[in-house]
Amino acid sequence: MDETVLAMPAAEDGPVEREGGSPHLVLDGFTGPLQTLLTLARAQKIDLLRISLTALLDQLTAALQQASKSVPLGQQGDWVVMAAWLVQLRARLLLPADAPGQQEAAAEADAFRGRLAALDDIQVLAQWLERRPQLGHDVFARGQPEIFGHAVAAGQVIDVVEFLWASLALFDDETTVDTTDVYRARPFAPYQVAEARDRILRRLAGMPGGGPLEQFLPDQPANSSDPWRPLRRRSGWASTFIASLELAKQGDVALAQEGPWTVIGVQASDSERPLRPPVSQGGGC
Predict the structure, then answer these.
(1) HSE-up of 221 (CA within 13 Å, CB side)?
(2) Are residues 99 and 200 in the same domain?
(3) What whole-number distance in Å separates Cα of residue 40 and Cα of residue 42?
(4) Would you say residue 241 lies in a domain?
(5) 206-211, long-range: CB within 8 Å, 24+ apart, which pairs?
(6) Same domain flag for 44 and 123
(7) Which of 39, 40, 127, 205 could form a disulfide with 45 if both were Cys (CB 3.0 to 4.6 A apart)?
(8) H helices present in the chain, as ranges
(9) Which of helix, strand or coil describes residue 29?
(10) Is residue 160 included in any domain, yes or no?
(11) Is residue 66 part of a domain?
(12) 214 and 116 in one domain?
């Protein structure tokens, strides 16, 4: 593998050039910001095997050393997290194509890409929350005065020893413990898209001709009195449908449908049989 890498500018040459809030990288097969490299790797639009991990880490280290004080520490931490995800994705693809663990490594890489997408959503939400007006700083509740400068009011002094003794008194054997039952809502865990992807691929392995999308739904509990039964079925349909679209986009399965609101047929993309839409029986989605 060609490991030729263009070197980063030295520290005395000036600050590191950053694009889109992430360091600018110059690697063999890629030139651009770290965020773009992570996006291409997640979408499988770049060959990670050509990327030198040593050069990537060296350039990231140089970027962190040259980062000015104006770059928030949280943003620098995002750079390290993005580089760590790239290293993990790269490590999962080091097995040869004919190795027995290649399929498992590819599945783990898909799972990592899904977690990367969730991480992006979390970062966007955190940035949105950070931009919101802060109570007591940007906005003030009714009756709460705006404090200019530094507050000089002394807080209450807590005796740590007395506080610990008071806490231990709560666990005294003579203390009556309240054992009244407290109402708690029954938890409902929706079906995950990642589980639906694995279920579709696993069932397709035993169905050379494929089948309607309904055959890939999760097994429903036999308890007919389950109050979450209708919601579980809706969750199963939603997760299975989204998983089939993702697999079709990646080229792992093929989908067919006669028309709107008819049954959707699912078949492995490497199947030798031609895919035909199943006969609609009014149960399509």
Answers:
(1) 11
(2) no
(3) 5
(4) yes
(5) 208/268, 208/271, 208/272, 208/273, 209/267, 209/271, 209/273, 210/254, 210/265, 210/266, 210/267, 210/268, 210/271, 210/273, 210/275, 211/265, 211/266, 211/267, 211/278
(6) yes
(7) 40
(8) 34-42, 53-66, 73-92, 102-131, 160-169, 193-204, 229-250
(9) coil
(10) no
(11) yes
(12) no
Amino acid at 80: V
Q: Which two tokens stand for residue 16?
A: 């590191």
The structure tokens listed for 39 are: 């996006």
Residue 85's nearest CA partner among 104, 112, 105, 49 is 112
User: Does any domain span residue 248?
Assistant: yes
- The answer to whether residues 97 and 200 belong to one domain is no
For residue 115, what are its two tokens?
């977690």
| pLDDT tens digits in sequence order for the chain, 285 residues long | 333 333 333 333 333 445 457 888 888 778 888 888 878 877 777 777 777 778 888 888 888 888 766 677 777 778 888 888 787 777 766 655 555 666 676 677 677 777 777 877 888 888 888 888 877 777 777 765 656 555 555 556 677 777 778 777 777 666 565 667 777 777 778 889 999 999 999 998 888 888 899 989 998 877 777 778 888 889 999 999 999 999 999 988 989 888 888 889 898 887 767 666 665 554 444
Q: Are 268 and 210 in contact (CB under 8 A)?
A: yes
Phi, psi of 58 (to 5 degrees): -65, -45
- Strand-pairing partners, residue 139, are 135
The domain boundary, picked from 78, 95, 130, lies at: 130
The set of residues, in sequence order, having a beta carbon less than 8 Å from that of 6 and lying 6+ positions away, is 26, 27
Residue pair 244/266 in contact (Cβ under 8 Å)? The answer is yes
Structure tokens at 3: 């490991």
* Residues 203/195, Cβ–Cβ less than 8 Å: no
How many domains does the chain divide into?
A: 2
Residue 255 sits in which domain range? 193-220+228-268
Cα–Cα dist 193/200, whole Å = 11
